[in-house]
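Renewal narrative, Specific Aim 1. Our central claim is that a sequence can be written position by position from structural information alone. The example that follows is taken directly from our test logs and has not been curated for this report. It begins with the structure tokens describing the chain, in the order in which they were read.
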């Protein structure tokens, strides 16, 4: 399996054993992950080849976190094909694109830990960050997205400190075509705006409402 998945298990086990002093010294934070359809609704059953959007939310729970890193793993590896160049981040309601020529990329695959990493950076106690990554369902059966919230207390990757985890599972089935959403799905291309990003207007409204409640 993946290195980061193994690290999650080991660190959770150690956390249960040494939860006393360690938790008092580490910053707190929360990560939430979900898979959405093009309407912004949570996906329970998807068709093979369907376009979906992975949503991840990170909050510091009233603590300073520097740096803030969110890992994403797909189980099985063949479950989804992510489109990182079209990833979008909202930080306190301000949108950033992953291919922004000024700010650069914040979401990419990392070979060292064998996971997708969302590099948020420094987060103040009341900050709120959201990530939306378009993806295509590429396998059938249960598909799980595992998310981990991390900070660093030393060199990467040995200094990674796990703060929180979350996961989301949906079922992929080989829907016959023509059949919605198969017949209604616009294929992703290297240029132009994929169909999944058309939903980001709605997602940003949802995210703004959630952020407003949290504030």
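The sequence written for that structure reads:
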């Amino acid at each position: 399996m993946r290195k980061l998945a193994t690290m999650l298990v080991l660190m959770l086990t150690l956390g249960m054993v040494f939860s006393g002093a360690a938790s008092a010294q580490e910053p707190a934070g929360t990560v939430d992950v979900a898979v959405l359809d093009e309407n912004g609704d949570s996906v329970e059953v998807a068709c093979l080849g369907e376009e979906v959007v992975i949503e991840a939310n990170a909050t510091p729970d009233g603590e300073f976190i520097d740096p803030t890193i969110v890992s994403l793993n797909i189980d099985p590896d063949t479950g989804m094909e992510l489109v990182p160049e079209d990833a979008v981040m909202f930080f306190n309601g301000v949108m950033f694109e992953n291919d922004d020529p000024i700010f650069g990329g914040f979401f990419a695959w990392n070979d060292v830990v064998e996971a997708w990493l969302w590099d948020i950076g420094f987060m103040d106690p009341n900050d709120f960050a959201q990530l939306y990554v378009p993806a295509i369902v590429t396998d059938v059966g249960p598909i799980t997205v595992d998310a981990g919230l991390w900070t660093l207390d030393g060199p990467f990757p040995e200094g990674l400190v796990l703060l929180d985890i979350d996961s989301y599972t949906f079922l992929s089935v080989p829907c016959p075509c023509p059949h919605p959403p198969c017949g209604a799905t616009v294929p992703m291309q290297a240029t132009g705006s994929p169909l999944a990003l058309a939903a980001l207007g709605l997602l940003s409204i949802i995210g703004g409402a959630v952020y407003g409640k949290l504030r």
